[in-house]
Amino acid sequence: MKNKIFKKNCLLICFANEKIGSGHISRSQILAKSLKEKGWNIFLFGPSSSQKNILNKFFFKKIIYVNTLNKKKILNLSKKYIQNLIVKHEIELVIIDSYFIDNKFQKKIKKKIILKISNKKNNSNCNFILDYSFLNNINKKKRLYYNT
Q1: Helix (H) or strand (E) holding 80
Q2: HSE-up of 76 (CA within 13 Å, CB side)?
Q3: Which among 134, 137, 98, 135 has a CA at the least distance from the CA of 114?
Q4: How confident is the model over 89-123, as pLDDT tens digits?
């Protein structure tokens, strides 16, 4: 059996604009920098072009801006575009830092490794969930857990 050559391509989905805020961008850039140092190509999807001044373009192979504040428009545009990006760039890892990408859509891309950054419980179609919430029980030891 031949080993599959692992393409080190990652799609980072992170919506950010004037209303959503730049915390998602900050987190995404930290992850992108770390992955880039390990030889990954990072494709960023979702920030508004108004966020260009806080993005370090060096971390990303390509940035796809989404310039709408309408959640329904974002979802309709994103679903088609994200699936095309995954195929075109042979994405192996999808990192989702957005509440807009729901469990139903995550199921459509489940053949990829999915890391979801979320404090919500409805993430059954992700491989890993990074829970960043300070509101959870302080004694809870697992903040990154494997979803079975």
Answers
A1: helix 71-88
A2: 6
A3: 98
A4: 999 999 998 878 888 888 888 788 999 988 777 78
